[in-house]
Each structure stands twice: as structure tokens, then as C-alpha cells.
């Protein structure tokens, strides 16, 4: 029986400091003045303790490709094209090394759960899935990894992709992905959606789609959210569908947007903005007053939509920045979405903890409460409302009651 006692933890800004007693990987009790001897003892001295961060959407298999072929135009089209050329040369060891680096960086920044979207298509085939399944096993004591079969090159456009997605699921993938805008016609985009919904239902898996990633409403292949809401309800998939990017929503007229947000909330769909990519690739044709190019986060939250956010890409043609640090992405989101008040900055933290956990379907075992998994991170900040602006290091990362990262000063995670 392994025990861990965490004392003087700042769990909420409006509450006294708390002690957390952990036994066998589970939070057993939370209170004050615990004094039982434990196998391991951490005095937080008032530092913030959050549940482990949840990286809800990331592509480890195509991280760190920026130097190999930079995206000169800065468009989504060139990002997909350049990456398509590069992945033809992938080897197992190459993909493993780059993906492993993403995992190590993320863990050091306080992430204990991750949903990864390796490409599955006629070029990369199932290499990304194979590598991530291996890493899932190797790193299972440090991070929970969900793997999505992601048809980046389309399904109708990329021969054999649907069969490969099916094969990826047989191998152990956890989630069905989709990318309906990357088809040649609207009819094909709709067929793509039908195929991925069918696949998810057949295998009783959640669905996580890249959709509506544009900064205009002119191309109907990038305007499918309403249809997806209907399909979700018709197929009784409420609570199991996530939409990434969805930046087209930022171009809708306010009344139209409001009606749609209501539908998204009713369909129990999670919206997953990917700020580092959305801001970088959108608004490229604006000659002045360049738009932010993101889905409107505050309005969606006000309509009761479950909104999270994630890193998406680390240093490649889609996003030449990033260090797998969700707090940094949170800063970008807070700035660009006008989320500056103390309450709003705490909401930004909720989006990469509780909201993302709900998206990943792990909410029953997740959080800081008695009976929950002891996946925790101690940040070097004194208030939750300061975490985004402090950009603190993770002093301790705890997975299943075990300290897996311990750092008192900024350390290289190479
Ligand atoms: Zn993505």
C-alpha cells in the first residue's frame, strides 16, 4: 500500500489550503491538518494543485517537421501538401523519436492524459498508429494515451483509407477521426461523415473530427457543423462527438451563430479550438485588421457548449511553434478570446482539465475529489487565476499517486 500526503494545496481560490491523502493511486480524502505518516510527503506551501492537464488533440507523428519543409504561404493547403510529401519518407524510428519527444515534453509540463491523432492514409498507412500504440504501452505509468484513426488525406480521395482505419481500430485505436473538408466535393464530404459515423457506431467508439477549418463561409465543405449536430442526435451519439478547429463559426452572423451554438450544446458535442494552428493559418488574405480566425469561445461557453482547447501541432507546417505546454496555448486563447478576468482565467484552466476530460470520456475518474484517480500537478503559482499569466513550471507531476516529475527550476526536457 503506497501512500502520498500532499499538504497546503491551493485547490480553489475561494477556499482555505487543503491536504490531500492518496493511497494506492486514488484520492482517499481531502481536508485540513492531516498528520498521518505517509510513504511520500509534499508540502505545496500554498501552491496551486490541479488535476493532471488533458491534451485533448495533438499530432505527435508529424511534430518537429518544420525545418524539413517550411510552409512558405502559411496556408492550410500548403501545410497538408508539404506534410504529405514528408510523410512518404517516414520510418518507424523517425516517427517514434519525434512522437516520444512530444510525450516527454507534455508530461514535464503537467499533462497526464492525451488524445493523439496519427494520420491514417495511403501514404503514412498505419505507421503512426503502430508507433503510438507502442508508446502508449511504454509510457503507460506516466500518461494515458487515446489514439484516433485520423484520415488527414480524406477517405474517398485516399484509396484504402477506410479499410486502414478499420484495421487501426482492430489494432487497438480508441477513437474514430475524420476530416470531411479534405474531399473534392460537398457530396463527398457528406459521404465522409456518414462513413465515420458508421465506423464509430459499429465499433462503439467516440468520434473526433477536424471540421469547418476556414475563415469564411463560402465553401460548403467547411460549413458542416449544423449537419453534424443533426447526425449526432439522429444516431444517438450525444456526448461522444468532438469537433476540432470549427473556425468557420467565427464568420457566422451573431443570430445564426447563437442558434447553432444552442444546437451544439443540445447535441452534447465538444468544441475543441486549436488556437496555435487556427491563429497561424487563418486570416491570411486579410490586408488589414487581420482576424483572429478562431471559433468564438466565450459565446459558445455562454450557450452551455462544452469547450476545451489543445495544442494540435508542435513545430511543423501547420504550426511552427509549440512545446507541448497547454498553459502557453491557454495564454494565447485567453488573449485572443478576451478572457482576461480572474474568473475567465480560471475558466481557461477548466477547459484543459474538466472540459477536456469530459470530451475524452474520463470524467468519472478525473478531478480532485475523494475516490478520483490521483493524477495531479503542482504548479509554482499561488492562485488559480494567476496560472495562465504566471506560466509556472510544474514542480510536481503525479500519476496514479506516484511522483513522475519533480522540478524546482526551469529544466530542459530534452
Ligand atoms: Zn489536428
From TrEMBL:
Species annotation: Sporosarcina jeotgali
InterPro entries: Amidohydro-rel, Metal-dep_hydrolase_composite, Metal_Hydrolase, Metallo-hydrolase_Enzymes
Source organism superkingdom: Bacteria
Top-level taxonomy: Bacteria, Bacillati, Bacillota, Bacilli, Bacillales
Listed name of the protein: Amidohydrolase family protein
Amidohydrolase-related domain boundaries: 48-401
Alphabetized Pfam families for the sequence: Amidohydro_1
Amino acid at each position: 500500500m503506497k501512500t502520498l500526503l500532499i499538504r497546503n494545496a491551493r485547490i480553489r481560490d475561494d477556499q482555505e489550503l487543503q491536504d490531500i491523502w492518496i493511497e494506492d493511486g486514488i484520492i482517499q480524502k481531502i481536508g485540513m491538518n492531516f498528520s498521518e505518516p505517509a510513504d511520500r510527503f509534499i508540502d505545496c506551501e500554498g501552491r496551486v494543485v490541479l488535476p493532471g492537464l488533458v491534451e485533448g488533440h495533438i499530432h505527435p507523428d508529424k511534430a518537429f517537421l518544420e525545418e524539413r519543409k517550411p510552409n512558405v504561404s502559411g496556408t492550410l493547403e500548403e501545410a497538408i501538401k508539404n506534410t504529405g510529401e514528408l510523410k512518404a519518407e517516414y520510418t518507424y524510428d523517425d516517427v517514434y523519436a519525434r512522437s516520444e519527444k512530444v510525450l516527454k515534453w507534455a508530461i514535464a509540463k503537467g499533462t497526464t492524459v492525451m488524445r493523439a491523432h496519427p494520420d491514417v492514409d495511403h501514404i503514412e498507412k498505419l505507421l503512426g498508429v503502430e508507433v503510438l500504440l507502442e508508446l502508449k504501452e511504454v509510457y503507460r505509468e506516466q500518461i494515458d494515451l487515446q489514439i484516433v484513426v485520423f484520415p488527414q488525406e480524406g477517405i474517398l480521395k485516399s484509396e484504402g483509407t477506410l479499410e486502414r482505419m478499420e484495421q487501426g481500430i482492430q489494432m487497438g485505436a480508441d477513437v474514430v477521426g475524420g476530416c470531411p473538408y479534405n474531399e473534392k466535393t460537398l457530396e463527398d464530404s457528406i459521404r465522409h461523415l456518414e462513413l465515420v459515423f458508421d465506423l464509430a457506431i459499429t465499433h462503439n467508439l467516440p468520434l473526433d473530427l477536424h471540421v469547418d477549418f476556414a475563415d469564411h463561409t463560402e465553401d460548403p465543405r467547411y460549413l458542416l457543423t449544423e449537419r453534424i449536430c443533426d447526425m449526432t442526435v439522429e444516431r444517438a451519439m450525444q456526448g461522444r462527438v468532438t469537433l476540432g478547429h470549427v473556425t468557420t463559426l467565427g464568420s457566422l452572423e451573431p443570430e445564426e451563430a447563437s442558434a447553432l451554438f444552442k444546437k451544439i450544446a443540445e447535441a452534447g458535442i465538444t468544441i475543441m479550438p486549436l488556437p496555435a494552428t487556427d491563429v497561424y493559418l487563418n486570416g491570411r488574405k486579410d490586408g488589414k485588421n487581420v482576424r483572429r480566425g478562431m471559433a468564438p469561445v466565450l459565446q459558445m461557453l455562454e450557450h452551455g457548449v462544452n469547450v476545451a482547447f489543445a495544442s494540435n501541432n508542435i513545430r511543423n507546417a501547420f504550426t511552427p511553434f509549440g512545446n507541448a505546454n497547454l498553459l502557453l496555448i491557454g495564454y494565447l486563447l485567453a488573449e485572443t478570446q478576451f478572457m482576461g478576468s480572474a474568473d475567465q482565467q480560471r475558466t481557461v484552466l477548466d477547459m484543459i482539465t474538466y472540459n477536456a476530460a469530459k470530451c475524452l470520456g474520463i470524467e468519472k475518474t478525473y478531478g480532485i475529489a475523494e475516490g478520483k484517480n490521483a493524477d495531479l500537478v503542482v504548479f509554482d503559482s499561488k492562485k488559480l487565476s494567476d496560472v495562465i499569466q504566471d506560466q509556472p513550471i510544474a514542480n510536481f507531476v503525479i500519476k496514479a499517486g506516484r511522483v513522475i516529475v519533480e522540478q524546482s527550476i526551469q529544466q530542459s526536457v530534452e
